[in-house]
Amino acid sequence: MQVRNVESDVLIIGGGMAGCGAAYEARTWGKDLKIVIAEKANIDRSGAVAMGLSAINTYLGMRWGENTPEDFVNYVKGDLMGLVREDLVYDVARHVDSSVHLLEEWGLPIMKDEKTGKYVREGKWQILIHGESYKPIVAEAAKKAASEIVSRVMITHLITDSQDKNRIAGAVGFDVRDGSFIIFKAKAVVLASGGATHIFRPRSVGEGWGRTWYSPWSTGSGYALPIEAGAKMVQMEIRLVPTRFKDGYGPVGSWFLYLKSKATNVNGETYDTNRDRLRANYGAYADAKPMPTCMRNHLMMEEIKEGRSPILMHTQDALDTREKEEAGWEDFLDMTVSQAMLWASQNTDPKERWSELVPTEPYIMGSHAVNAGAWVSGPEDLAPEEYQWGWNRMTTIAGLFAAGDAAGGAGHKFSSGSFAEGRIAGKAAVKFLHDNSGLRTNLDKEVIEARKNEIFQPLENYQLGKQFITRGSVSPYYLYPNQGLKRLEKIMDEYGGGITSFYSTNSTGLGRGMELLDMLKEDLSLLGAEDLHQLQRAWELNHRVITAESVMRHTLFREETRWPGYYYRTDHPKIDDANWKVFVVSKFDRNSGNWSLEKVPVYNILRTE
Ligand code: SFD
Ligand code: AMP
């Protein structure tokens, strides 16, 4: 087997929005440093923005006096039912506009009002773009900044220093094209490997299997890598259930906010303004303005449960001009081509008739209207002592930084905020190196050798087990990644609050789900991969399972229903501010296999109201 060694000062894992931002900014501050990006795909079209986007969802418009960072903090806090790290949200807010200006300078077409010269707003925080080529534009800057980009490498494990187990020393993985084992040695690492889909069984099954709203290659590496290395995590219980156009998963933001399209229940009644229905269980949160995303979902779910579905998006009333019709189609053609294809293939003309809306399966993310991820240190001018232990966005492992979906506590970063947070983390990683100029990293040969054996084991399992195939893909000696994935999705769906149980779970269900997860974990050592592609799928499954376990443990720990419409603890159906207006922070110890969970205070540090 070929073994490759790649040394760097700063290693960036994942060349998506946050990773590209990190490379650009690390180069600005570290002119002579060796900056390496390790990317599972090809950064020109990798990550959630691969297909393009039609809006930048976080832009404050400070230069036109449209919003202030305080306004943004207030909004995000309200939307996430009070549980946000204000220091992190503020930090993104004060940097996001200038990041968007950079993207425009690099060629991203942002729609402008001809008279005022201002960006065309989709909503209070969102602006419209012609964004099919969003990702290649961002990638070009990262390519110029990076010393080296190692493409098609699946990072499987982080490696900590042999002399100091709580300091990062690099990562290992394999080339998914030629099968070589790659050892990355680094003095600082920025983790930007995205969110997690296919943790829960998706609504798309049968011929649509694999289709999800968020990218299917967001496989939980943003969470599993730091968890396994012993970093603390936060908000892993929150999951995003976005409202989407049925089956094509077309996003709704442009439709609601820009095109002013209305959704109704099957009887043509508006359902999403009925706050009276929220009061009994959710108290004062029922009057939150704007209504939090999860509560908008909740009202829709109630309609469905009570038999007043399908929920109808009345596109036919919104597309009343040629311009709006074009904007409606472009929205999907820029960002979710499958929705436009579905309309075409099902003879749906959105100008003529409504489309159905559904709440999707849950996703784990740190960048959308949720904020799961690594527990990171905050900016030194804002973060209270408890939120600060060194360099901005550094995890609880020294030298390991996180950004985008991988960094917890903030939320509503979206593409622009993830890019901006990547820049923040990249700059901080360079500062970490400057402040620790004598730093030496030490890799333990035995640890690396053990990882190598573990990584390639599924290939061997297949070679041995294939001789005993009973029929087709069924062997008593191994299971395929695909089979393991379906088992994971079923467990999480039925016990973790997925679509089958209508997003509900409770302590008994979670306990049973965790027992079944344990059995799945036992079987993971028997994964079989017939080629490198499947080996990648095997490691993606491993990462998804670690992520799922963290989700289950956090969900069990939080004894309340903090985000109705995302998930329900039926044994604790109310919001319980007295006991649970806190963060849940977890830590996994890989030596003992134990998880510890604790409550950490949520501080209101800005006078935002
Ligand atoms: O409306 C490894 N997003 C939207 N953001 C917006 O600003 N506007 C929109 O209109 C948005 N919409 C939207 C969005 C996403 C999608 C899929 C759709 C619609 C259909 C959200 C943003 O895209 C999202 O917030 C950011 O992209 C998050 O950035 P980041 O960097 O945290 O994640 P990434 O871009 O997916 O990049 C991750 C990278 O890591 C790689 N990777 N590499 C090596 N080893 C491993 N083990 C790895 N695992 C992953 C990935 O390949 C990738 O390059 S709307 O619907 O909300
Ligand atoms: P989406 O397309 O659903 O991902 O949403 C894009 C942006 O629009 C996000 O910032 C959402 O929070 C926001 N958004 C979507 N629908 C609504 C709505 N009905 N009311 C207010 N904001 C919304």
Structural write-up:
With about 600 residues, the chain is of the alpha/beta class. Among the domains are: about 110 residues, Alpha-Beta Complex (Flavocytochrome C3, Chain A, domain 1), CATH 3.90.700.10; about 140 residues, Methane Monooxygenase Hydroxylase, Chain G, domain 1. Strands 1, 2, 5, 6, 7, 8 and 15 form a 7-stranded mixed β-sheet that branches. α15 runs antiparallel to α16. The longest helix is centred in the C-terminal third of the chain and has 26 residues. It starts with a strand and ends in an 8-residue tail after the last strand. The mean pLDDT is about 95. Bound molecules: ligand SFD and adenosine monophosphate. The site of ligand SFD has 44 residues, from α1, β3, β6 and α12.
What's this entry about, in short?
The protein is an alpha/beta fold and about 600 residues long. It has helices at about 15-30, 70-80, 85-105, 135-145, 220-230, 255-260, 280, 295-305, 315-320, 320-335, 335-345, 415-435, 445-465, 480-495, 505-525, 530-555, 575-580, and strands spanning about 5-15, 35-40, 55, 125-130, 150, 155-160, 170-175, 180-190, 235, 245, 265, 310-315, 355-360, 375, 400, 505, 570, 580-590, 595-600.
Attribute tags:
Flavocytochrome C3, Chain A, domain 1; four-stranded antiparallel sheet; 19 strands; binds ligand SFD; binds adenosine monophosphate
What's the SSE blueprint?
Blueprint: E1 3-13, H1 17-29, E2 35-38, E3 53-56, H2 69-79, H3 86-105, E4 127-131, H4 134-145, E5 148-150, E6 153-160, E7 168-175, E8 181-191, H5 221-229, E9 233-234, E10 243-245, H6 253-258, E11 263-264, H7 279-282, H8 293-305, E12 311-313, H9 315-318, H10 322-335, H11 337-345, E13 355-359, E14 373-374, E15 400-402, H12 414-435, H13 445-465, H14 481-495, E16 504-505, H15 507-524, H16 532-557, E17 568-569, H17 577-580, E18 582-589, E19 594-601
Parallel strand pairs: 1-2, 1-8, 2-5, 8-15, 16-17
Antiparallel strand pairs: 3-4, 6-7, 7-8, 9-14, 9-18, 10-13, 11-12, 12-13, 18-19
Bound molecules: ligand SFD and adenosine monophosphate.
